[in-house]
């Protein structure tokens, strides 16, 4: 492994761990834990590549420090979950970027996740239907084995045929991936909530529709939602030991 490659890995580890510390300081513990774990793994890869004993000792010390903090956070989060007191708030600022579904939901997805409930009144218009499709694609790519997705939404009275046709097509497409889409409509739905059967509950003020319209079809952020500007909204995360259908 070349010196430049090792230096690159070390820089990547420093960037991830800096983010972990920032999240830690802001009380976003579950997210910080994921970043600590990723950063520690990168540092361990660097340690394997470094031959000089002085540097190896330096990296071992750094790894131990970050591992100790990660264990403290893990114990704290587990205790809060056990007590039913876990609550985390994320504020997404107007025009901010870096909040794709992969980034937002990743800390709460685990191998134990098999069933998801989505309650969102605005899965109706074309861009909202695409948002839900992207959310489903995110689950398919995630390190979990989701078998069923429940969607509770309102019916688009102005263009119900487009909505029902799109969701029927998505249901068929998901079935080829071994996932069942359970679709229900409600005329009184208002709240927005996403519930995972591993206990996590994510409430987004704007639901899945928190992205701004791109400036054009060939503008940055049109395809990559990490680069898409967001509308201001708040995300509240809770955990319960007892999941139930919506």
UniProtKB/TrEMBL annotation:
It holds the Pfam family MIT_C. Signal peptide: none annotated. CDD domains: MIT_1 (cd02683), MIT_C (cd02685). Residues 6-84 form the MIT domain. InterPro entries: MIT_dom, MIT_dom_sf, MIT_domain_contain_protein1, MITD1_C, MITD1_C_sf, MITD1_N. This is MIT, microtubule interacting and transport, domain containing 1. It comes from Oryzias sinensis (Chinese medaka).
């Amino acid at each position: 492994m070349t010196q430049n490659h090792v230096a690159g890995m070390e820089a990547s580890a420093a960037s991830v761990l800096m983010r972990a510390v920032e999240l830690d300081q802001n009380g976003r513990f579950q997210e910080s834990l994921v970043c600590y774990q990723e950063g520690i793994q990168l540092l361990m890869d660097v340690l394997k590549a470094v031959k000089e004993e002085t540097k190896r000792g330096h990296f071992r010390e750094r790894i131990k420090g970050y591992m100790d903090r990660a264990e403290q956070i893990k114990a704290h989060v587990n205790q809060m979950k056990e007590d039913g007191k876990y609550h985390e708030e994320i504020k997404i600022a107007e025009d901010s970027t870096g909040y794709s579904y992969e980034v937002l939901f990743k800390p709460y997805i685990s191998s134990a996740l098999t069933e998801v409930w989505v309650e969102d009144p605005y899965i109706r218009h074309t861009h909202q239907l695409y948002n839900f499709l992207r959310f489903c694609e995110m689950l398919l790519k995630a390190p979990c084995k989701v078998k069923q997705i429940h969607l509770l939404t309102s019916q688009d009275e102005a263009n119900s045929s487009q909505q029902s046709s799109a969701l029927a097509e998505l249901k068929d497409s998901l079935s080829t991936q071994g996932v069942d889409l359970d679709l229900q409509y409600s005329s009184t739905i208002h709240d927005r909530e996403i519930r995972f059967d591993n206990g996590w509950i994510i409430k987004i003020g704007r639901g899945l529709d928190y992205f701004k319209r791109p400036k054009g079809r060939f503008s940055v952020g049109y395809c990559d939602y990490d680069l898409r500007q967001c509308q201001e909204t708040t995300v509240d995360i809770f955990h319960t030991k007892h999941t139930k259908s919506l």
